[in-house]
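Thread: "does anyone have the structure for this chain?"

Original post by V.I.:
We have the sequence but no experimental structure in hand. Need at least a predicted one for the grant figures.
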Amino acid sequence: MLAAYGMYIFTRQIGLGVIESIVITIVSVTVLGLLAYRFLINRIRQHIVAVLLITIAIAMFFEQLMLRIFGAHYLSTAYLISGYTEILGVRVLNQHLLTLGIVAVVIIIVWLLLAKTKLGIAIRATAQDAEVANLMGISVPRTLLITMGIATALAAVAGIAVAPLWTIYPYMWTSPLMMVMVIVILGGLGNIKGSFIGAFIIALAEVLVVSLVPAGSFLKVVFAMLVMVIVLVVRPGGLFGVVFEEERL
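Reply from O.Q.:
Generated one for you, tokens below.
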């Protein structure tokens, strides 16, 4: 949401070029994420529920801040790339193709980062067991700070990619948040392949609902969550997740 507003401010109000706006937006959002982690989240990172609550509180703060500054008006930004391409007789906006390309590149970069670099090994080790990672010489606080920076940078990239396709307004973050949670849980926590396949399954479920029952298209989110529940009943860890059982005395 902040990245979308950033693109609107820098391109429409200030008049900067697209490249300059993208760079400034990504840097700004990433810095905000790092500051939030350093002064708020890091103090309570051992308490998962508290972290969840404070991150939602931060999101609502920025939501109300944007509402105060811009009001409840619906805004928009220009397409990063104009025109359309005809694929199998269907006209597809080039902006949609660009967004798809950005997603593909980001997924590949994240996969290479986590699988092929020392930083990726440190991130995965810290996520699995921070105490053992610390004993193996990994700086857990530094790794978590870097992870937060990467996460907020990815969120900024997502906001920039969809800003031309969506309407920009203060509450635009709420609907994607629920769908992202459904997709990640469906695919399996911490599994990129699972999230990728889970996104396709949820998208297919939504499209089928809209196509087969046009009058009930407002129920597409309900059916998406129903798919998640059915999968979790069969596989509690998600499609590609791993269920760890605690040792019982």
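V.I.: this helps a lot. Residues 173-241 form one domain.
O.Q.: and Strands lie at 84-87, 90-93.
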